[in-house]
């Protein structure tokens, strides 16, 4: 197997950073330490709640690359994080691109899947039953928890190839896209923070890990379709609220924005020629060919995946817009005479359950392909019913299982990592993960346990590293500094890539 230029470039970069880090360790022991950046490598709380140290400056980074003492010491934490990031990705490579481990066949047992899910929920509930401090419906703890349990089912669906869950999984993916609309609208609408720094932080969070996976494992971006899909919808939301942001203040202005989004989606996705014209030039980025179906249209996967949830992010934005009214309604209900409120709750629950049952019969039960045709227009129904039921009663609304929320924070990492260090694509670039990674042979359950434990740990570390590097490299409120740092990253990447191309050419002769 010959290495691609991207792989060689990553290896060169990794070695260079390794030298810098060792150098930092050596001079740390000989110099009085001047590490200005506080250790920021911590748990989720400390990376999201407390303010991270300010980003390193362009000058520090350039000096660090030239082995200048003070700067190397200042960047020591960053170097450490980069090194760990590289090591974690080496694990991806070893697990999925070498013959070091065997790969196993998937085997579905409904009983085991249900047993596992129930067991996990029991343990999580027992260990982390919590009451939210925020009293609003659909508070952060609740959405994180929602992400978490859906993610577990989504992953189990892949691990056991539980084909019968196909339609349910489509709804879970729609729920994530809905949350992108909901969360991003709330953020931009309330904070009105359209700064480049914040925007780049979001892009980094969504795409940094996947970029390196694509390069190191020689895969297409759309193999991990969740990433480009959330990226494009995030861009749409940013654009929708950021362009003429002054009209966001009036109801009519917001209505215009929503209508604009709907029209945009209709024109782009319902008219194939428009879709082709817009995304065709990006085929190098958005094209994907499954090696099992080499003759398929490279743009089909992107069309299909992005099309399934093309509308639901707009519904998410609308829900975010209606949220204050919904909150008022719920508070009014809670403050009402309890007998009266009880009747209203029972009646509303009855209506919602009936609607849900109708949707289940008429839509959910359809076979895969027919279901997919209905999905873009109906996925909002089960989501909305779930949200309304989940928040109907204050008791339900404020309780949540914190451990599911923990998993909910690292869904992006568990999504990407599953392909390579939990499942296996069996050494074939761009292949779907149709196999299982086998570390312990002949003991499928023990193997599941060990592989899963490593997998969750690695995903969590990748989450932390991605955040740490983002905070160290992208200043939030200094556009000039941001441009300079990004330019530097791009420049260094290009130099390594160029060196890799030359190395590949010379070894081939
Ligand atoms: C916007 O959506 C993206 C993709 O789901 C997410 O990573 C990001 O956290 C969201 N931003 C906010 C402020 O909720």
UniProtKB/TrEMBL annotation:
Recorded topology in the membrane: Multi-pass membrane protein
Keyword Transcription attributed: no
GO biological process: plant-type secondary cell wall biogenesis; xylan biosynthetic process; xyloglucan metabolic process
TM region positions: 6-24, 112-129, 168-190, 202-223, 229-247, 259-282, 302-321, 342-361, 373-392, 443-463, 483-503
Compartment list: Membrane
Record family assignment: Belongs to the PC-esterase family. CASD1 subfamily.
Name of the protein this chain belongs to: Cas1p 10 TM acyl transferase domain-containing protein
Organism: Cymbomonas tetramitiformis
